[in-house]
Design a protein that fits this description.
There is one protein chain. The protein is mainly α. It has a domain at about 35-110. It has four helices and no strands. The chain has helices spanning about 1-15, 15-55, 60-80, 95-110. The longest helix has about 40 residues, at about 15-55.
């Protein structure tokens, strides 16, 4: 990102505002992707602990703490700087969760079932 900032500064100083706006758009896209990656990471942790809770029918203190922390981090990350809009809107969560779910299922399956997880004979992990 340092190169992009230097290019942005140069474009502005040289009066190439079209180039500067293009760089700003690129930086915004990079920032959004980084935020979405962080949300996915916390969502995966959240799902892992919720799955473990359901499978093992217990909730440890560390799992509860991790669940609370993940929910808070997801809420904080998802709220844009203007405090009125979100990176992931309510109607987009289902697809976003589905994109993380298989990775989240794999980890507790490995630890709880010695790596064997089957759903309608579709896969083994």
């Amino acid at each position: 990102m340092t190169q992009e900032l230097m290019d942005l500064k140069t474009s502005i100083l040289e009066g190439r505002y079209g180039d500067a706006l293009f760089i700003v758009d690129e930086l915004e896209g990079m920032s959004k992707q980084a935020i979405l990656r962080n949300i996915k990471a916390f969502l995966k942790i959240l799902l892992i602990h919720l799955i473990k809770n359901q499978v093992e029918q217990r909730l440890t203190g560390s799992w509860a703490s991790s669940i609370r922390n993940s929910v808070q981090e997801i809420q904080d990350l998802n709220l844009k700087g203007n405090k009125t809009s979100y990176y992931i809107n309510n109607d987009e969560w289902e697809g976003f969760i589905e994109s993380v779910l298989m990775a989240a299922v794999a980890q507790p399956a490995r630890s709880a079932y010695r790596g064997c997880f089957r759903r309608s004979n579709e896969w083994d992990l």
